Amino acid sequence: MHYISQGKIPEEHLENIRRMCAAGADWVQLRLKNETFERVLETAKAVKNICDAFQVKLIINDFPEVAKKINADGVHLGKLDSCPLEARRLLGKDKIIGGTANTLEDCESLCEKQVDYIGLGPFRFTTTKKNLSPILGTAGYQELLCSLRA
Predict the structure, then answer these.
(1) Is the bond preceding 122 in cis, omega lying within 30 degrees of 0?
(2) In a domain? residue 5
(3) What is the mean pLDDT of residues 127-141?
(4) Total domain count for the chain?
(5) Is residue 84 in some structural domain?
(6) Positive or negative, the Cα torsion across 96, 97, 102, 104?
(7) 8 Å CB contact between 99 and 110
(8) Based on the domain organization, do 39 and 106 belong to the same domain?
(9) Higher pLDDT, 16 or 141
(10) Taking Cα atoms as reference points, which of 95, 20, 29, 25 lies closest to residue 58?
């Protein structure tokens, strides 16, 4: 299970991450929006300690430099974040690089940039993102997956 952190403040993220690790999550993605680099770094260090204690992989959202500084397992990059190839150069070949996609073109581009996984969505409406891409639903997922297999 890949848990994407939630909370209004970093301390809520930490508590939710602790609970999800205790519940058996395999991966945690620290997703702090609208925070300074320093605050993300400080929170990521605390999350790394939690994840290490539970032997859970840690992915940092949006900040490859933070992932590098704390030796996280990888980074997830949104459509407007840095290039996955740049993140790969920074983090090395053994780290996990993920990217966000909403269209076939997004998926193809991420595959060309050799990401390890794609976060495809949104599946349905959510309030966790301010600039929500078009909702895919079941039909959108099926269409994209069929196109990628072709």
Answers:
(1) yes
(2) yes
(3) 81
(4) 2
(5) no
(6) negative
(7) yes
(8) no
(9) 16
(10) 29
* pLDDT tens figures, 14-41: 999 999 999 999 999 999 989 999 999 9
Q: Which domain holds residue 51?
A: 1-76
Question: 107-126: per-residue pLDDT in tens?
Answer: 999 999 999 999 988 888 87
- Cβ pair 17, 3 in contact under 8 A: yes
List, in order, residues 6 or more apart from 99 with CB less than 8 Å away: 76, 77, 78, 79, 84, 106, 110, 113, 115, 117, 118, 119
87 belongs to a structural domain: no
67 and 101 inside one domain: no
Q: Choose among 82, 83, 80, 73: nearest CA to 102.
A: 80
Residues 44-69 have pLDDT tens digits of 999 999 999 999 999 999 999 999 99
Q: What are the angstrom distances between the C-alpha of 134 and each of 59, 79, 101, 121, 122?
A: 25, 13, 11, 8, 7
Query: Strand 74-77 relative to strand 96-101: parallel, antiparallel, unpaired?
Result: parallel
pLDDT beyond 90 at 96: yes
Q: Do both 19 and 67 map to the same domain? A: yes
Domain boundary pick from 44, 76, 108: 76
